[in-house]
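Re-running DUF423 domain-containing protein to confirm reproducibility after the cluster update. Everything else is unchanged from the original entry.
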Amino acid sequence: MNDTARNTPPGVPIWPLRASLVLSGVMGGLGVALLAASAHADPSGMSGTAAEMLLFHAPVVLALGILAELRKVSLVPLALGLLLIGLTLFCGDLVSRAYIGLRLFPMAAPTGGLLIIAGWAAIALSAFWIRPNRV
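Result of re-run:
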């Protein structure tokens, strides 16, 4: 099905919804896998923390994709990007330290954490930029 084959006005992209469906599914699956792995192979608990972050944020990524599809909110793509980059850095660093004993780079996890916080701030600020839905 192409982007114009559904019941939306012409020119309205559906890639944010598709991307958020894929990414939230991957995040959920990785979160469950990391929780299982942490129960058996990670005494530090760092991969469990990464798993929880992925599982907590997977529904948020999906909701942002839906919001981007339903409304034109300029900060939603920014929030989505900040969350995804932040989660990649934060979770990637924790998993790397837990299983191979190396950091991604110095301050990767704190940088990721700050980007996640900035993503949540962008979500909050997006309330001021919601445009009316035009049919």
